[in-house]
Amino acid sequence: GVEAGTTAAWMERHRQMYERATRHPFIVSIRDGTVDLSAFKRWLSQDYLFVREFVAFTASVLLKCCKHEDNSDMEIILGGVASLSDELSWFKNEVDRWGVDLASVSPLNSNLEYHRFLRSFTEPEISYAVAVTTFWIIETVYQDSFGFCIEEGNKTPPELMGTCQRWGSAGFKQYCQSLQRIADRCLANAPADAVKSAEEAFIQVLELEIGFWEMSSSQS
Ligand code: HMH
Question: 187 C-alpha vs ligand 1 centroid, how far in Å?
Answer without folding.
Answer: 23
